[in-house]
Amino acid sequence: MDRIDSMDRGIQRHTNTYIHAVISLLKQYDRPLSFEEIRDKTRIDLHNNYMLLQSIKKNPRIVSTHNTLMFKPLYSIRSVEDMREVMKKLNGEEGLEMSKLMDSPVNIAPFVDELKKNNEIIVLSDLDGSEVVFWNDMQENPVAPEIKDLWSQVRISTYHDLIRELNTAGLKTEKVENVKKRSTIKIKKDRRSRRRIRITNTHVKGLDLSGVQDEG
């Protein structure tokens, strides 16, 4: 029984490999491929493998006829304008996985680069390396060149110009200086009391007691 289960798992792995190979091939073409073309490019004969063909047809993105298969991408993007319209529909509320956008019938990498350059989309990378694309709905309209020229002609007054204008208007300017007083730190002297020693053995020969005060 274990041997049969192992054989079934092996067959399933081979089946999944074949399905992946066929679908990956279909994604490369923006048209249906005949079974003969699929066999020539993948060595997978769909004419004589009914179960494999039915498994491939279960994919919701596969469009099949009597003897052809075609991959229908979730987003049919063929130009930068197509991608712009797809992203605009999101209104910046949610993002699209880059992998889903890459399923388009043509290479959309140049479209992504152009929209990023124009600050129309934002691409965020996740920890696993996957990327999510967001529409930048906070972008501002470009300023007219005439407005830019007028802005560049506006003169910003210097400090001395401001002082002169204030004086002309009769307004006085005052310079306030804050002098911070230093707090005086008082150092208390440690008064140590002299310890008095009472000497009793005054009869010891050679003992000089002239500098010792006797405790009375």
From TrEMBL:
Main location: nucleus
InterPro entries for this protein: TFA2_Winged_2, TFIIE-bsu, TFIIE_bsu_DNA-bd
Keyword Metal-binding: no
Presence of the UniProt keyword Acetylation in the record: no
Domain TFIIE beta: 3-78
A GO biological-process term: transcription initiation at RNA polymerase II promoter
Pfam (any one): TFIIE_beta
Role: Recruits TFIIH to the initiation complex and stimulates the RNA polymerase II C-terminal domain kinase and DNA-dependent ATPase activities of TFIIH. Both TFIIH and TFIIE are required for promoter clearance by RNA polymerase.
Protein name per its UniProtKB record: Transcription initiation factor TFIIE subunit beta
